[in-house]
Amino acid sequence: MVLTNIESVPGKKIAEHFGLVSGSTVRARHIGSDMAAGFKNIVGGELKGYTQLLTDSRKQALDRMIEQAQQLGANAIVNVRFSTSSITQGAAELYVYGTAVKTE
Questions:
Q1: What's this model's pTM, rounded to 2 decimal places?
Q2: Are 84 and 95 contacting, i.e. CB atoms less than 8 angstroms apart?
């Protein structure tokens, strides 16, 4: 599956358009990550627990979007975008969406 954040796949022609596909996940913070983050706020540095949480969330949301596109018969997704929103205190949704197409 080809994923791109532009309107086309360079060197390919879009033969079919399947429409919007998306994937999302809602994740809550872990108490251990919160404690580590509080300490890092004092001394500075990367919040590795949150970095891993976001990496895992992006992968899961992308996998869900790709699965939806494959079910439609697409071999590419163009105009891929990510969005986040707060669901409740300590939990957020990561949403990814794009346009499923078939290229030649």
A1: 0.84
A2: yes
